[in-house]
Amino acid sequence: MSDEAASAGTGSAGPHRAGVVALLGLPNAGKSTLMNRLVGERLAIVTHKPQTTRSRILGIVTRPGGQALLLDTPGVHHGQGALHDAMQKAVGESLDDCDVACLLVDLARGWEEPHDALRERLDAAGKAWFLVGTKFDLPVGRQRTWPPAAAGSPSRVFRIAADRGEGTGELLDAIFECLPESPAFYPDDEITDRPLRFLAAEMVREAAFQELTDEVPYDLAVEVIDFDESRPDITRIRANLLVRRESQKGIVIGAGGRQIKALGTRARMNLEKFMSHRVHLELFVKVDPTWFKKRKRINSLGYF
Ligand SMILES: Nc1nc2c(ncn2[C@@H]2O[C@H](COP(=O)(O)OP(=O)(O)OP(=O)(O)O)[C@@H](O)[C@H]2O)c(=O)[nH]1
Ligand SMILES: [Mg+2]
Q1: Residues 118-151: pLDDT tens digits?
Q2: How confident is the model over 261-303, as pLDDT tens digits?
Q3: Is any ligand 1 atom within 6 A of the Cβ of residue 222?
Q4: Most CB atoms closer than 10 Å: which of 79, 90, 162, 217?
Q5: Is residue 210 in contact with ligand 1, taking CB distance under 6 Å?
Q6: How remote is the CA of residue 70 from the centroid of ligand 1, in Å?
Q7: Considering only CA atoms, which of 8, 68, 2, 3 is closest in space to residue 40?
Q8: On the CB side of 166, how many CA atoms lie within 13 Å of its CA?
């Protein structure tokens, strides 16, 4: 349980509340960081590059009297192709499915034109939505006039620094107050519906985003081909790094295999921290010029 979930007012005297909360915004707004903070685990991968998240990822926060189903989503952006379409479909479905939405806006950047469309969709759907300014710890964010007039009429307005947990407890309290009366949807010890196998693939992809430059991480997908949990003290994982072009294969492997070694070490250390035991990680680089073109293939990689 996160500090936020533990410290938030229990609300256990009133009716039980449960519902879906969509975390929406532009790429790099801090959606995944906020979800991880509220859930209290590094469920969603976070990098300094935009378009890190490719699918909707459920993070469950349970406390006495309530359960919030947080949906981390890909950032809203223009683009084309089956992967882009799958990412934006995940955004649309999260918006449609939610009981309350948080529209996250990077305070360092302020309100931008694509926020208008998101706000219009939320208002048209009649959703309760919170305006959440992120990265309040940065000086430029602290100086920004908030809320901006263009934001219209959000139900509530917040400023948070999710990295350090500033303002996130108050935000979670407000979320719980807004949820409909309902029994819980998941057992109280569950934090996501995603299998460990998918979370592991994501952690490898996170390492790829951190280690590789230019377009390579965007062209790369991770396919777990073997996930062996038969021993309690070590998990053995074998995964393919799918790249689009032969030239990218060379970049990912690096001179003398140094790049893939660094990437693998970084991923393994994060996996061991997450699983609290040893991980044996074996990575292979495979050229697959079409992985991002076919919807079913994209979905099978966990991006939906
Ligand atoms: N200074 C500061 N940086 C933050 C804060 N929250 C997130 N960041 C940073 O912003 C960057 C993007 O964070 P993410 O959580 O990956 O953003 P996102 O909205 O999920 O991005 P996409 O998945 O690409 O749409 C990372 O480098 C984070 O460390 C914050 O409160 N303060
Ligand atoms: Mg993200």
Answers
A1: 999 999 999 999 999 999 999 998 999 999 999 9
A2: 999 999 999 999 999 999 999 999 999 999 999 999 999 999 9
A3: no
A4: 162
A5: no
A6: 16
A7: 2
A8: 12
- Block residue for tokens 């996170």: 206
CATH entry, 3-178, from 3.40.50.720, 1.10.8.60, 3.90.79.10, 3.40.50.300: 3.40.50.300
Which CATH fold would you assign to the domain 196-300?
GMP Synthetase; Chain A, domain 3 (3.30.300)
Atom of ligand 1 nearest to the CA of 160: 31
Host H or E run for residue 3: helix 3-7
User: Residues with Cβ < 8 Å from 175, sequence gap 6 or more?
Assistant: 21, 68, 100, 102, 130
Tell me the two tokens of residue 176: 């719980």
What are the tens digits of pLDDT across the range 32-69? 999 999 999 999 999 999 999 999 999 999 999 999 99
Alpha-carbon distance of 231 to 225, in angstroms, equals: 18
The values of phi and psi at residue 224, to 5°, are -75, 125
